[in-house]
Design goal:
575 residues, alpha/beta, 8-stranded mixed β-sheet
Length: 575
Amino acid sequence: MSTTDRPLRSAQWFGAEGRNGFVHRSWMRNQGFADDVFDGRPVIGIATTWSELTPCNAHLRDLAESVKRGIWESGGLPLEFPAMSLGEPLMRPTTMLYRNLLAMELEELVRANPLDGVVLLSGCDKTTPGLLMGAASVDLPTLMLTGGPMLNGKFRGQDIGSGTVVWQFTEEVRAGRMTVADCAEAEVGMSRSRGHCMTMGTASTMACVTEALGVQMPGAAAVPAVDSRRYALAHAAGRRIVAMVSEDQRLSSVLTRQAFENAIRVNAAIGGSTNAVVHLLAIAGRLGVALSLEDFDTLTADVPMIVNLMPSGTYLMEDFAYAGGVPAVMAEIAPLLHLDHVTVSGRSVADNIGDARCWNRNVIGTLAEPFQPAGSGTVVLRGSLAPSGAVLKVSAASAHLLTHTGPALVFDRIEEYVVAADDLDLDVTPDTVIVVRNAGPRGYPGFPEVGNVPMPRRLLADGITDMVRISDARMSGTGYGTCILHVAPEASVGGPLALVRTGDLVHVDASTRRLDLLVDDAELARRRAAWQPPPLTADRGWTRLYSEHVLQADRGADLDFLVGGSGSAVPRHSH
């Protein structure tokens, strides 16, 4: 029986009379459902991004079974369905090219089907924001459950972190300080259980951010994928989504401006990925929540980094979970949060974190004794080289490079730079500023994670492990270095990055938030007059549609016609 007196969407399918009702119910019966499942009870969709092509999400079908238990138990009808799976380790040219496609698919699937509420099962980097963007444009009661991180990687008695050691060890091989055989041994021990990256990369960041937003159950972000408590959380999520339908707690009532402010501050406190910036901007755009690139700087100026995790620190997500996870972090920075914000738990943030404790101060610090001081998170740079902004993760950068002036060494394609980087005769010094362009949303296309370009081998051989690198690309959340990213407007649409020439002086000052090209206006005007936009790289299909409609990084890189939403109105009959 129904748990609410309010008419449910699904009743217009399963409660219909005549031919349409016959069609909708009869075909569903081939799955062996009992007669009473069509009695008006809430129908809950479980959107899963399970795929064996997405290692991080390959266990989500098992998690869905636990969600179903909770839904059945609470009087709902669970119906699992697949959504496009975006796996960072395998997909080319970049999963970011397809984030908006996943969002569009999920939006249409939810609206087109007899669903009263939705549970989103995600894990790998782009599946989490893609699902949330699509769900936001429909605005039904929605709850997210991420798949959880892998157990800590192991190599010769040490913990190693996914992604982070990839960049570190492969650079050591290039420098001649590590053998290929040793690197292969590390490869075997890095990913040793189900789950997504266990560093504070983008997958873990977005899991934590969605918990901070209030769309994930308290404590759900950090519990390892193979920990039985994750399946208990899935069971509880199944129960809770049925209650959310009864309460008509829609996604828009959770994802408020307060929620985004909490998420931005938590992201700073955990040392989260710069990719959270572009994803949160896109999600906010689907809901009409006023959020700007500048918010990621101004809202975090007084937030210290209190979590000591790779790539900025020492520990990994398994340690973070056992130290107390996101609830412990939010309890520590409670004075900086909106504690009255009501989450999908049905309770306020204050209630959610009231009993939270930290069990390991080596992993989670305090406001008084943080791991890194306030201002160590993502900062927004502007100037003549980035009129619409660029981002820099201070905690992952080298302190001596946060104020720097040096000559540019410019590459139009990442492939050109990768070849040049191995040239021991490359004309480069530690003061050089590497510029790689045409890797933004439109230019690549797809906005890839190539911004943490490898160091020149010539410098690695001299023991130099960092330098200023600037691009209109993104960087993996597991990456590190003084990498200035998301430069907007990007080069391929005529941003100033397109006008830089090798030898031009570039000035960076993180303290004053400046990124400037030290070339006079008259010379830049001459270069602009001679500049020609590069042609689109695709003439058909999704890639062409994406290239023609993608917004710039400072607006979340959504498609212009997908901003906002179309709601959950029931479509016209199909028969």
